[in-house]
Amino acid sequence: NLQVEMNESQHVMISYQWDVQPMMLQVRNKLKENKFKVWIDVDRVEGSILSAMADAVENASVVVVAMSEKYKNSNPCRTEAEYAYKLQKPIVPLLLDESYKPDGWLGALVGMQMYFNFSDASLFEANCPKMIKTISSKVYKQPEKN
């Protein structure tokens, strides 16, 4: 297990469309097992959803984006992802729909980044270690805030 020292206020944010929640809860659990602090809406949203989302993005050291056609077509998902992009947060894309090829605004957001295929439960165990390694490398590369 990788030991990760994260700033007390920072976390890995999981941005997803609700249809893939069971898989993203598994991702959350795996990240927590690896000592990451994780923000996911089911654990943390109180009060204004927009305000909670903004705080989550602002305090994220990394944003995990669960890509699918439904994610791309969801206004709240787009708001989260574009805000993360605007704040230059490192983004780790996961593919949650085998037939989806990132296009439109989501294609532009992830660009040429390698993504991890989580479209099937059988791929979860195979791709989790690679995802965790990538998240770790991005957490450590965060510039210090003055």
UniProtKB/TrEMBL annotation:
<dbReference type="GO" id="GO:0007165">
    <property type="term" value="P:signal transduction"/>
</dbReference>
<dbReference type="Pfam" id="PF13676">
    <property type="entry name" value="TIR_2"/>
</dbReference>
<dbReference type="InterPro" id="IPR000157">
    <property type="entry name" value="TIR_dom"/>
</dbReference>
<dbReference type="InterPro" id="IPR035897">
    <property type="entry name" value="Toll_tir_struct_dom_sf"/>
</dbReference>
<protein>
    <recommendedName>
        <fullName>TIR domain-containing protein</fullName>
    </recommendedName>
</protein>
<feature type="domain" description="TIR">
    <location>
        <begin position="12"/>
        <end position="120"/>
    </location>
</feature>
